[in-house]
Amino acid sequence: MSSYYDQVREAADFIRGRVAQVPDVAVVLGSGLGDLATRVAGAVTLPYTDIPNWPPSGVVGHAGQLVVGDLAGRRVAVLAGRAHYYEGHSLLRSTFGVRVMGLLGVKTLVLTNAAGGINTAFESGALMVIDDHINLVGTNPLIGPNDERFGPRFPDMTEAYSKRLRALADRVATERGIRLAHGVYAALHGPSYETPAEIRFLRTIGADAVGMSTAPETIVARHMGLEVLAISCITNMAAGVLDAPLDHHEVMETARRVKDQFIGLVEGAIAAL
Ligand code: HPA
Q1: Shortest CA distance to 157 belongs to which of 171, 181, 141, 144?
Q2: What is the mean pLDDT of residues 81-86?
Q3: How many other C-beta atoms are found inside a 10 Å radius of the C-beta of residue 92?
Q4: Domains in the chain, start-ordered, CATH in brackets?
Q5: Among 92, 115, 163, 252, which residue has the least CB neighbours within 10 Å?
Q6: 211 lines ligand 1 (CB under 6 A)
Q7: Phi, psi of 26 (to 5 degrees)
Q8: Residue-wise pLDDT tens digits, 212-262
Q9: pLDDT attached to residue 57
Q10: CA distance linking residue 111 with residue 231, whole number of Å
Q11: Could you list the active site residues?
């Protein structure tokens, strides 16, 4: 069995052999936000199942794909579909794609997700820049022997989400008339949604939104020195905020409703990098 590093390198080499130009920006698409991939020009589409060692994602109906091409004047890789921890992948496996992007030479990672709104000033459909996260997944993707080729044993997380890119997102949002919130994202492993008591706990410890992804990917990206911008689509108010049960269909529907704003924001941010 080859080392994890070799598995990542094998995937990166495979991709390098299939695209004319390697990307310098990668975008990971969250639930219901997949339409951005269709905006990539001159796209080379690589199904995850074709890329060596790449874990399939659990998106209903397809295993996900990597789309490499031009978006907003930049060479980008769009990861349409991600492998979640709750699907039974280890965190090592679920952050594999980010590792591959790092080895390909990507310098900027844009993470997107669907999240529940904990901050009662939010409304369903709001877009939120992640200023910081609280990792409550219960584990960490860097557990295990550290491979110095990826990064240091104890990576700094004081600016996990780039201050520069957060300010850039604000400028783009103002230009495009998009209302943009900011907040702290709490990452839980799921897949059950939270209880109202858990949401009150998360609010008390300083979380504004909650979801089941992103924090492990950010940790891995920072380990490799990538600059991270992350945007949550608040697809629903979190459990107990409103007097209504949570439903994945609502998550998908809300994401679809705001997809034009979302695409505008991400494209604008990429153009302004
Ligand atoms: N909780 C956790 N993950 C989520 C939610 C939520 O309310 N909405 C979308 N993803």
Answers
A1: 141
A2: 92
A3: 17
A4: 4-272 (3.40.50.1580)
A5: 163
A6: yes
A7: -125, 145
A8: 999 999 999 999 999 999 999 999 999 999 989 999 999 999 999 999 999
A9: 87
A10: 6
A11: 31, 62, 84, 86-87, 114, 212-213, 236, 248
